[in-house]
Sequence to fold (388 residues):
Amino acid sequence: METEKLYYQDPFLKEFTANVLTCAPGKGGFCVTLDRTAFYPEGGGQPADHGTLGGAACTDVHEKDGVIFHTIEAPLEVGSPVRGVLDWARRFDHMQQHSGEHILSGILCREYHCDNVGFHLGADTVTIDYNADITWEQALYAQQQANEVIWADRAVQITFPSREELTAMDYRSKKELTGQVRIVTFPQADCCACCGTHVLRAGQVGAVKVLSCQKFRQGVRLEIVCGRRALEEFNTVYDQARAIGQRLSVKPRDTCAAVERLGGEFSEAKLRIAALEEQVFFHKGEEFAEKGDVLLLEPPMRPDSVRRLADAVARRCGGLAAVFAGPAGGAYSYALIQSDGTEISARVKALNAALHGRGGGRGGFAQGSVQASEEEIRNFFHNTAKTV
Fold:
């Protein structure tokens, strides 16, 4: 006997009573069937409802051949009445996300002649796949139109048309349908075959926010949030913008311009530092003119600066220039350059093995990092090469 689906009769039903038909041990607890239920089973990209049955946690719900199976943590007596209570925050969130996706998808498919070919309602965001190359600007336009529909707050229409009526209807569906078809219509936005739970009025979605629009297979994948999730996303982003603004002494909405200005100043500072480093490295190299192999241990520097110092020393020393900078995060960056280009791969291999390093190169050049102390680095070179 098929389970009576109370979630279709009233998607805002939070509590209900039912009779226990079967109860048997199953994966994750006990598998229970009822004569009727308000728990929505996983399907169509929408996760299952959670809550309690007879006070026991209901952790999963699925449907097979019209029968709803509930996974609960404790057994229930067959034939007894039971009270079910939904995790309403979870259910309402799913209705907001699913309904918002309908509104946005209906508009996108209408405006850009595409199909929704994938939908996943995740714990944090909703992802939707379309078989068309939708641009970010087009996605934002559809977002604006979707929110206009939401703010108009028209009632959602749910119908079960006959086969003849269905043939004459223009509706969205990802696959060929048989049997009784449930049509969900958001006026001025979408008409779609769907088995999920939805809000009663568009305004209950609250808002739709597109987070990303990325190339995916032959089309794009949109990431969105709706309702409470959209508010939480706004709060998180605003709090970050506000914190950044306080550090930069600007208002939250002016942080982008301030960061761009700071980025320009940083780039100029890097150029000035590089120019000063070139002067310092040149004079450092002069100190070791014709000295042969040289080992230098310097304060922490960027890997590129380590390489350029080693190059300046190698041009003058007439031997191997080995520069180690650090420790930064417990590691030394290194650059080895043989002034005459002699192959040093064997020495680098031994260095990495002895000093827990990683890196390499070719010919007379190698670069990498080691997890070792200053003493261990000096001992390695003292035992393997003459240094100054």
Q: What stands out?
A: DSSP finds nine helices and 20 strands in the chain.
